[in-house]
Every structure is written in structure tokens, then in C-alpha cells.
């Protein structure tokens, strides 16, 4: 796995690089700002980019803008965005460009090394990784939506875990239910959200986007 890191804090930038290299991952470049990050993406064509939301010069949304541009330049690039705290608009803006190979984690999650590495590998494999705290806040801020209101409390629990990027087995383990029960809940979610039978991955992404866009 070839990785580029974009982070303006030199301690965190180098700390991430050391952590990932210690795990046998190939950090091909690090960058202190969005322009240097995009140059590194062009030069090294990485598999995964780890990008801070706020970078110079304005420390607002440079990371999100750069992440979207990097995906335009290198289709299929997995992007893991890091933020010091939940920024709802940035999370939904990023996911509006498609959720495959996209992650949004709070920086505190980096300290939980195994969780962080699991999220990184999930992205590289084509999945998503949304911080549980982001999902929780999106849930509490959600606007009324007729289709989402059709879901039972357990189905909403399952959809929230889908939004975090968990697969069926991981959802079953988290909720202490069988894989079959999770499969049934997801089938009900698709039906209640009016997602017609189609490719399973497509419907899963569509359900998660409906959930996140309701915030």
C-alpha cells in the first residue's frame, strides 16, 4: 500500500509516517499543504492519501478541496480525511462525490492504532470508514425524512453502522446478533428506502448516502 500524507502539523505528519512505516506500509511522500500534496499525488500515484481537513493558507477547507481534486486526477484513489473535531458540512460535502474508498476520522482515532489501521485497510480494499462520532452527530442533527422514519430503531442502528463502513459480519458482532438477522435488517432497509433490487454494493452506498444527506 503506497501512501501520501498531507498534514501541516510537522509532529503529527512525521508521527503518522513513522507509525505506518513501522507497520510495513510504504509512505512515499509527506506534504505540509494542499499544493505540495497534489504534487506528490501526481508524482507518486499512491493507493491511499491521508489528508488533514484544515491546511494553509486559510486553514478552512483546503484539505477537502485537495482531496476532491486528487480523486479527479487519480480515479480510484482512497482518501482518508482527518479532522480535530466533527465538521458536518465537510463530511457530507466529501461524501457527495461518492463514498467508495472514502473515510472521515477524528484525529483522536489515530491514537487507537488498531482501529486506525483497520480503517486504512478497509479504504484500500474499496470500502468506507466514517468515524462513529461523526455518524452519531449526523444522527442527532438529522432532519425529518419520510423514508428514514419508516425504519425501526434496530434498522437505524444497522444503517448507522453501515455508514461507519462496517460489513455485515462486523455489524452482527457489534450488535450481538446473527449474520442472518443483519441480512434481514438490511433487506428491510433497502425496501423502506425505496431502493429497487440492483447491485448489492450500489444499494448499500445509496442507503448510506440517504442517511448522511438527511443531516
Concise summary:
The chain is an alpha/beta fold and 215 residues long. The chain has helices at residues 10-22, 34-44, 62-73, 88-95, 113-124, 132-140, 146-149, 153-164, 168-175, 179-192, 200-213; strands at residues 2-6, 26-31, 48-52, 78-83, 102-106, 129-130.
Quaternary state of the chains: single chain
Radius of gyration: 17 Å
Contiguous runs where pLDDT drops below 50 for at least 5 residues: none
Q: How large is the count of helical segments?
A: 11
Fold and architecture overview:
- With 215 residues, the chain is of the alpha/beta class.
- The chain has 11 helices and 6 strands.
- It folds into 2 domains: 130 residues, Rossmann fold (3-Layer(aba) Sandwich); 72 residues, Orthogonal Bundle (Arc Repressor Mutant, subunit A).
- Helix 4 links the parallel strand 4 and strand 5.
- The radius of gyration is 17 Å and the shape is elongated.
